[in-house]
């Protein structure tokens, strides 16, 4: 029996070494703060256990054994803290400070046990071999030490049950993991009571049971964590070096990790989003980023934002443990090119207005729309200006009349303005009135008029209005064109003659 327990001691001792190595390889100190302290304390206790068995220095053996008492208490404390981290709660600061103070007191009592037999009624001078410490009578504070230690463990179990029931739908770990932790804690308590009541040996079964229990905590909380799996498998390094941004979530789409680039580029803090739903992150970034799954984004609305194409993949850690990897492909440059193409296909470079292609795609919306006004505008004398004064003069007139139209229409929130031909312009105004159309026409004619022929902009304007919504948009535009041509017959010939007379007088023929 003794040989079996000795082998068990060695195996458990080796088990405490593995978590320390793996935990401190990870940079995620805040996430596993209590678990790291728990595993480190257990490992230190392991070292003390083996020192007391192999050292030949009585002073070292004696105090290595006595320090096992505060180590046991601190293992209980850090187990409680780890469970609070597991259920995503904070251990009350007052309780943590009180427990840490008790731990410090136990360390002091352990170092002074040779003078005052607090835990063991055996002095350093009375000890001949390390096993004497196991069979010696217990001191007056030993019972209190046990009460405090197991009270902390019971409190940890109660807290675990309470928060699991309270937050069963939000805790990011799994139900099976919770059951494993509960079973492990019960096994630890059972082995401790067996050690106290039935087995008399120089092997500390309390240490064996607690070391085993802490290893189970490590397994279910740390190695089953999807991020740890990514890091230890080497995929975490691949993700951190990827050009694409990434987000990792659990099966409930709660964020557990995202690319550092989201922090450096967009100021997203992990503390604000880890544990929250993925949609919460999307909402937080909506002013900076457009997320999409298909190329159906309004480039006009989103032109000042970055654009990311979202691709989602499900991945498994174990049989029933899975999460989601969301890769974000930066398509901002693609959308920049799309905007440029949009400008080329829908906007007139000369005037900055929409072009015929743009307005043609919009016309169907205005079919049978009541209170819709159409204004057809034509620039008079464009050809004669080009022929006698050069194309620069024609370009000037096109830009000038476009500027005047924008100026007059700037007070209207809803309107469509387009250059639909060389010298032709179309304006559509929803929710308007016939009197408003006349007002707009008069305003344009007024600001285009000038006594100086070189500053004058001659235009012909036709109006059409549909109050009832009985007309198709093309019919309405046709009526506006007819009205415009009636005016053009009266104004264009006069303006053309005035330009020719001006050129003859100045003898400025170009060709």
Radius of gyration: 42 Å
Percentage of residues in strands: 5-15%
Q: Give the name of the CATH superfamily of the largest domain.
A: Rhodopsin 7-helix transmembrane proteins
Q: Structural class of the secondary structure composition?
A: alpha+beta
Give the CA-CA distance, first to last residue: 119 Å
- What general form does the structure show? rod-shaped
Overall mean confidence score, pLDDT: 83
Contiguous helical run count: 20
Number of folding domains?
3
Q: Order of strands across the biggest sheet?
A: 2-1-5-4-3
What's the story with the biggest beta sheet?
5 strands, mixed
CATH class of the largest domain: Mainly Alpha
Oligomer: single chain
Number of strand elements: 10
Q: What descriptive keywords fit this protein?
A:
rod-shaped; Alpha-Beta Plaits; 511 residues; Beta-Lactamase; transferase; 20 helices; five-stranded mixed β-sheet; alpha+beta; Rhopdopsin 7-helix transmembrane proteins
Description:
- The chain is of the alpha+beta class.
- The chain has three domains: 2-224, Rhopdopsin 7-helix transmembrane proteins, CATH 1.20.1070; 229-337, 2-Layer Sandwich (Beta-Lactamase), CATH 3.30.450.20; 347-506, Reverse transcriptase/Diguanylate cyclase domain (Alpha-Beta Plaits, 2-Layer Sandwich), CATH 3.30.70.270.
- 57% of the residues lie in helices and 12% in strands.
- The strands form two sheets. Strands 2-1-5-4-3 form a five-stranded mixed sheet.
- A hairpin with a 4-residue loop joins strand 1 and strand 2.
- It is rod-shaped and about 130 Å long.
- Residues 170-174 and 230-234 have low confidence and may be disordered.
């Amino acid at each position: 029996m003794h040989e079996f327990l000795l082998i068990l001691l060695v195996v458990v001792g080796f088990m405490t070494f593995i978590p320390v190595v793996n935990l401190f390889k990870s940079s995620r100190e805040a996430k596993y703060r209590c678990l790291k302290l728990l595993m480190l304390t257990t490992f230190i206790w392991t070292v003390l256990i083996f020192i007391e068995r192999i050292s030949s220095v009585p002073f070292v053996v004696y105090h290595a054994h006595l320090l096992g008492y505060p180590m046991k208490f601190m293992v209980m404390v850090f187990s409680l803290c780890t469970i609070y981290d597991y259920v995503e709660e904070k251990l009350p600061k007052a309780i943590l400070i009180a427990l840490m103070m008790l731990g410090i007191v136990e360390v002091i009592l352990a170092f002074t046990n040779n003078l005052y037999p607090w835990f063991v009624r055996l002095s350093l001078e009375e000890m001949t071999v390390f096993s004497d410490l196991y069979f010696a009578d217990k001191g007056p504070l030993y019972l209190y030490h046990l009460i405090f230690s197991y009270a902390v463990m019971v409190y940890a179990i109660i807290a675990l049950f309470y928060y699991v029931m309270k937050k069963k739908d939000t805790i990011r770990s799994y139900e099976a993991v919770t059951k494993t932790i509960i079973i492990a804690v019960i096994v630890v308590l059972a082995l401790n009571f067996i050690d106290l009541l039935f087995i008399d040996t120089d092997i500390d079964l309390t240490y064996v049971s607690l070391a085993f229990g802490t290893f189970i905590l490590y397994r279910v909380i740390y190695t089953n964590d999807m991020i740890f799996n990514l890091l230890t498998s080497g995929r975490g390094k691949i993700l951190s070096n990827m050009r694409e941004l990434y987000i990792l979530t659990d099966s409930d789409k709660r964020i557990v990790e995202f690319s550092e680039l989201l922090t450096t580029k967009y100021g997203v803090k992990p503390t604000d989003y880890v544990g929250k739903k993925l949609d919460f992150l999307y909402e937080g970034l909506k002013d900076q980023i457009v997320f999409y799954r298909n190329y159906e984004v309004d480039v006009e609305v989103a032109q000042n934002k970055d654009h990311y194409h979202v691709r989602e993949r499900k991945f498994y850690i174990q049989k029933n443990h899975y999460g989601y990897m969301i890769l974000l492909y930066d398509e901002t440059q693609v959308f920049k090119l799309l905007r440029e193409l949009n400008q080329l296909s829908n906007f007139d470079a000369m005037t900055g207005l929409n072009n015929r292609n743009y307005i043609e795609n919009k016309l169907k919306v205005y079919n049978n729309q009541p209170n819709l006004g159409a204004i057809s505008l034509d620039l008079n004398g464009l050809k004669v200006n080009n022929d006698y004064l050069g194309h620069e003069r024609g370009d000037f007139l096109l830009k000038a009349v476009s500027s005047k139209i924008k100026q007059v229409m700037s007070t209207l929130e809803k309107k469509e303005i387009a250059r639909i031909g060389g010298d032709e312009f179309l304006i559509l105004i929803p929710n308007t009135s016939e009197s408003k159309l006349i007002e707009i026409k008069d305003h344009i004619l007024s600001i285009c008029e000038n006594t100086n022929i070189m500053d004058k902009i001659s235009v012909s304007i036709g109006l059409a209005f549909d109050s009832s919504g009985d007309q198709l948009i093309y019919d309405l535009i046709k009526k506006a064109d007819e009205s415009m041509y009636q005016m053009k017959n009266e104004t264009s010939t006069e303006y053309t003659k005035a330009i020719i007379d001006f050129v003859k007088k100045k003898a400025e023929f170009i060709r």
